[in-house]
Amino acid sequence: SKLKVGLLFGGRSGEHEVSIISAGAISQGLNANAEKYEVLPFYIQKNGQWMASDIAQQVIESGKPLEANEPNPNLWQFPSAAASVDVWFPILHGPNGEDGTVQGLLQLMQKPYIGSGVMGSSVGMDKIGMKMAFAQAGIPQVKYMAVTRAQIYSDPCVFPKLCDQIAAELGYPCFVKPANLGSSVGISKCRTHAELEAALDSAASYDRRIIVEAGVTAREVECAVLGNDYPKASVIGEITFDSDFYDYETKYTAGRADLTLPANLPDAVAQRIRELAVQAFQAIDCSGLARVDFFYVESTGEVLINEINTLPGFTSTSMYPQLWREAGIEFKDLVDQLVQFALERHTAPA
Ligand code: ATP
Ligand code: MG
Ligand code: MG
Ligand code: MG
Predict the structure, then answer these.
(1) Residue 209: which domain range?
(2) Are 6 and 100 in contact (CB under 8 A)?
(3) Which of 184, 297, 311, 323 to mutate to test the pocket of ligand 1 (most atoms within 8 A of CB)?
């Protein structure tokens, strides 16, 4: 009989819309394997409420979110259709989805699910935890400092000193980021003390944990990883754009960024990036899939890791599936392999 795949999408993060588009593509990919899989869609509204069956299917088909009611935690209900799911395919981006929260729920249900477990997901989402793990694994990265919201909103006399300390340590330009987000939401590039103060204040509105990084002038390249205990790395893709950095608008406005596949890189550099991508995947104990993003400083030949995304964008034009297509794995075979890796991980001895 067919395996029932619970496709879980939408979610409470700012990447809700992207998740719907990713789910549409994955649904098609699973339906192209109709002899093996039956798709059961589950849509998480922006208010956190789960919707199954027809409503979820309509959201996938329209590609647009449902108008959500006010958040009401007392209304939270688990759809009964969830009981018949054999394997879960969460394609939620950002907090409350990519960060281990949903993975913990699926783990408790004792059902296999696509992608990383609780630790890989949560460490991959938190840029401070992620960078600590990468440092321990010896993976090169930019200099950074961790800051908390409490430090930013503490004594108004202390805050300017903190900014001075950051500037002395990291120099300008530097990048301020909420630790647990994606799609460049809340990220600022700072060139002056005043910009740094404003950026920290803004990032603190998104997250308790904030990271400040030394800015680097480099090409931006990405590598896809697929597998469990023997993960494989894809070819390398490059992103180019005219904006100051790869910000939200550049990511989601058609025509603002270009992908080059494969990136035009010396073989040794491409090979090094692939090795580092697998090391990063293993450093935080990922499984299934991840997209690892790097900076390539052409003048020095240096490769620095920027970050890992454990549930990367998965629309038909997203980097992750495109990198595998370039490597010869079609979209429908990619989603099939991901389901098989989820089953393999679930049945492996703990
Ligand atoms: P994603 O949508 O890939 O999850 P994100 O929100 O996690 O992104 P980052 O990848 O950390 O954000 O940063 C977004 C962009 O900001 C990068 O792609 C790059 O253009 C720029 N950037 C971030 N950090 C630095 C840095 N230290 N030096 C130079 N540019 C940077
Ligand atoms: Mg990210
Ligand atoms: Mg992301
Ligand atoms: Mg990124």
Answers:
(1) 144-214
(2) no
(3) 184
